[in-house]
Amino acid sequence: MRGIVVKLHMYGAFAAAVFVLVLGVTGSIMAFEDELDHLTNPRLFRVTPAGTPKRLTDLGADALAANPGKHIGGYGMGVRPDLSYYVALGGTAVYVNQYTGEILGERSGPTWLSQIHQLHLRLLAGPTGKTIVSWAGVLTLLLSISGLYLWWPVKRIRINWGAGGRRRWFDVHNTVGILAFAFLFIASLTGVAIGFESVTSPMFYRFTNSRPYPFAVPVTPQPSARLLTPDDAVTTARAAMPGAAPIAVTAPSPTSAYRVAMRFPEDLTPGGRTRVYVDPYTGAVLQAESSRTTAAGTRIINANRAIHTGDIFGASSKILMSLTSLAAIAQVITGVTMWWKRK
After folding, report:
1. Rounded CA gap, 85 and 97, in Å?
2. Is 41 part of any domain?
């Protein structure tokens, strides 16, 4: 049995090696995706807090003045006072100083970080790439389990740096693998749940006997009514969700509502998990979904994603998931080296 597992472990590792390397490298970067974006683009993001931010309507007017003929699709608000706002104009994000109205710069098209994100999710190959990544996650999960099985009889957690050749690499492979086992297993399991979300998400809802909130809420057009401003929509959303901070507003169409994305203090995901839909004609709250009280299936899905990305506990869990990604890389390198140095 052990001989069979050894061969399955080796062949499975070779089949998944390239993909695990890609996922490890990209995953270690993605854990700090927003932080790296802010660090590498300080002119777009860094502002000095100075009093009360200007109204979104005014910031939108400033952005349109610099980009005549375009249409506002929404607004983004910095999650900290020292981070800028942006106005979405079609495929262009116009970054503005919310305290002064100064245009800080524009950005359109994919960034290097968004390309890394898509490489991690889909290998830059659309649905086919996503399928490959998902099955690579299954293989990684099986490799973790078979690795634990192979380690168990010896239970060695020590590296003999004086040993030569294959033995030293074997010790490193063993030690890194067992120390990172729980984290690699969790990262793989949560990644598989995300990769096969068309199966796992309905399963979570069935298991909890719950149903997801509608993502889009239609409205009845009222051509003669005065449209609410985005600032009015944010004020309404704040009243509907006390304690949650607005981080983005999607502008309405004639048949859709304002969508205000919000975050409670404990929600550390970049996009927020709380949403309030506001009727742009009447100002009525059409739907309010709180991350604290949303459907049980949705809470499981949100928690799974937050664990996988490291957002669950903030900086500490991000560091942990980044190190877990690096451990996956180390396992590939040591495993291939062991095979190369075999007798």
Report:
1. 6
2. no
Task: Give me the pLDDT at residue 225, please.
Answer: 86
**192 and 321 together in one domain:** yes
**177 shares its domain with 121:** yes
Which contacts qualify for 173-179: CB closer than 8 Å, 24 or more apart? Answer: 173/331, 173/334, 173/335, 173/338, 176/327, 176/330, 176/331, 176/334, 177/144, 177/147, 177/151, 177/327, 177/331, 178/147, 178/148, 178/151, 179/327
Per-block mean pLDDT, blocks of 10 residues, the chain (343 long): 89 94 97 96 96 96 92 95 96 96 94 96 96 96 94 87 82 94 97 97 97 91 90 97 97 94 94 95 96 97 97 96 97 92 71
Query: What is the edge-to-edge ordering of all strands in the sheet holding 285-289?
Result: 103-108, 92-96, 85-89, 72-76, 245-250, 258-263, 274-278, 285-289
Question: Angle at CA 159, nearest 5°, toward 157 and 165?
Answer: 135
Confidence at residue 343, expressed as pLDDT on a 0 to 100 scale: 58
Question: Which pLDDT does position 224 carry in this prediction?
Answer: 84
| Residue 220: inside a domain | no
Count of structural domains, the chain = 3
Quote the Cα angle for 268-93-232, to 5°. Answer: 70
Task: Give whole-number Cα distances, 147 to 119, 123, 268, 330, in Å.
Answer: 27, 26, 33, 14
Number of continuous H segments (helices) and E segments (strands) in the chain: 12, 8
Angle among Cα 208, 213, 219 to the nearest 5 degrees reads 165
- 96, 58 contact by CB (below 8 A): no
CB 38 within 8 A of CB 46: yes
Token readout for 212 is: 């997801």
Q: Residue 240 is encoded by which pair of tokens?
A: 């509907």
